[in-house]
Amino acid sequence: MSSLNQISVVTAADHDRVLLVWEAAVRATHDFLLPDEIAALKPLVRQSCFQGMPLFCLRNAEGQVVAFSGIETPKLEALFVHPDWCGQGLGRGLVEHAIGDQGVCLVDVNEQNEQALGFYLHLGFEVAHRSDVDGFGKPYPLLHLKLPDQ
């Protein structure tokens, strides 16, 4: 079995690589954010992801993180796949792990991130409600998704 199929826990030694994956994924999928906004989010992401929740990842053959998830059960708080690794089932694998092994049934997605919204809807999530601002109070609406019967 390749390392791409083995979910492992993110360690402190992985933090710089995880932040690199986050930034590359955000730049590829969050075209509604300006470069200065992404730069301003980096320290907040570092603090909230690395100090606040368990992180799980998939690694390439060299052991580098190429995709990761952050979970605060029952919510999937973060899911990012490096753009070079998209379309290979890594996101699906991490979400299935989050649901099956971590009890996840909720996730928020930026309304403007149509690719992510379609991904979660394809995996069976449904829109429960909408907020006009994101978790940082910025004017980026969030869709709050849930699995049916949750």
TrEMBL record:
GO terms for molecular function: acyltransferase activity, transferring groups other than amino-acyl groups. Residues 5-148 form the N-acetyltransferase domain. The keyword Transferase applies. Its EC number is 2.3.1.-. Pfam families: Acetyltransf_7. Keywords: Acyltransferase, Transferase. The keyword Acyltransferase applies. It comes from the Bacteria. Gene3D superfamilies: 3.40.630.30. This is Putative N-acetyltransferase YjaB. The gene is yjaB_2.
